[in-house]
Amino acid sequence: MNQSKRIRPEAMIFDMDGTLFQTETVLLPAYHKLFDTLRSEGLYTSPTPPQERLLGSLGMLLEDIWKVVMPDGSPQAHARANELLLQLELEGLAGGETQLYPEVKETLEELHRRGVKLFVASNGLEHYISGIVETHGLAALFDGLYSAGKHGTLSKVDLVKLLLDENGVKSAWMVGDRSSDVEAGKKNGLCAVGCAYAGFGHDEELKGADVLISSFAELLKLYEEADSE
């Protein structure tokens, strides 16, 4: 991390998929059920696209994801996919088989105990984000959950700016695994912490991050080593 950035922040802002939450534990079963349903409803006739397309698109706005995953799909198929994905993901969360990354809850609890304000900023849907937080017992730890689905922002940069403005946050670290997270941090004058453990993106995804972590628990060490002022 650059010396000028080694200031202990008042807040940390987290992406959700690939940062806090092991997305594939709910996403991949939902993905295959989604295409089975689209075909049964006559909205899509091709085989299910490779799931790697979906995993490689995480971090995008949902409307852009479907353009990548099924470019041959109609607007009606894309709209129905939005509905189905949320429904199936919420069913998966209710099933209790999903997972956070190792030591996420413990690390968040310790940061919260030390007075750090914690936020989520995700390009996902509102009920999906809140569903993960509720399912895994994280609700009491966060000062706010911000999603593109709820706030209608066109980019992660705009979403993070809104978060900062609404909460009067002056110093924060942006923590995430995609280029959109790094961009959101840098363009809002924040330290960008890149999570290199999910493996959904390409090597260039985290180019420009101030520091990379290979496990979530490393975040607490970075916080402890940062200057208080």
Automatic annotation (TrEMBL):
Family matches, as Gene3D superfamilies: HAD superfamily/HAD-like (3.40.50.1000), Putative phosphatase, domain 2 (1.10.150.240)
Pfam family name, one: HAD_2
Signal peptide positions on this chain: none
SUPFAM superfamilies reported in the protein's UniProt record: HAD-like (SSF56784)
InterPro entries: HAD-like_hydrolase_sf, HAD-like_sf, HAD_2, HAD_sf, PGP-like_dom2
Domain of life assignment: Bacteria
PANTHER family: PHOSPHOGLYCOLATE PHOSPHATASE
Protein's name in the database: MTA/SAH nucleosidase
Organism of origin: Paenibacillus cookii
UniProt gene name: pfs
